[in-house]
Specification:
Blueprint lengths: L2 E2 L2 H11 L10 E2 L12 E10 L3 E5 L6 E12 L6 E9 L2 E10 L5 E15 L4 E7 L5 E11 L1
Antiparallel strand pairs: 1-2, 3-10, 4-9, 5-8, 5-10, 6-7, 6-9
């Protein structure tokens, strides 16, 4: 029977699974085969839109941890839209935070885009709302948020 002493693999397995004591053997033989998941965490986007004085929402999946590593907010308004404010929010540690916002007070048509990157990524609460909200006195305003997340 061949034995392979693999302290690096043993340490990685015990660190990953948070195992203590004798939960893992210190020698791997042909009856014990470590298996590693080589697929990267899933990257995906959450896209939310809001028109005029409305709120668009999406809920994070309760079965995964979500890490926000970037967000983009684009706002388009016409000449009649005054005093507009568009915000993107997410829940982190039970508190709602404004991630991005664009305010406007002009009587001209406008298109604005802002973005932010997070390093390290910010963990968003599972089963929580992420939203984009428009406020406007009058006129037409459309906003679209794209949140770049990694699901683990």
């Amino acid at each position: 029977m061949a034995y392979h002493y693999q302290p690096g693999i043993i340490k990685n397995l015990s660190d990953f699974w948070k195992l203590k004591g004798d939960a893992l053997p210190n020698i791997l033989d042909e009856t014990i085969t470590p298996v590693f998941d080589v697929l990267p965490p899933a990257n995906y986007t959450i896209e939310i839109s809001a028109v005029n004085a409305t709120t668009g929402t999406s809920t994070t999946n309760a079965n995964f941890e979500h890490y926000l590593y970037g967000a983009v907010l684009t706002v388009i308004k016409d000449v009649t839209a005054t005093s507009t404010l568009s915000t993107v929010t997410a829940v982190v540690d039970g508190r709602t935070f404004h991630i991005l916002e664009i305010a406007s007070l002009t009587l001209t048509p406008q298109e604005n885009t802002v973005s932010v990157n997070f390093y390290p990524p910010v963990k968003i609460d599972t089963n929580s709302l992420v939203s984009v909200t428009n406020t406007t006195n009058v006129g037409n305003v459309t906003s679209r948020a794209i949140l770049h997340t990694r699901r683990m």
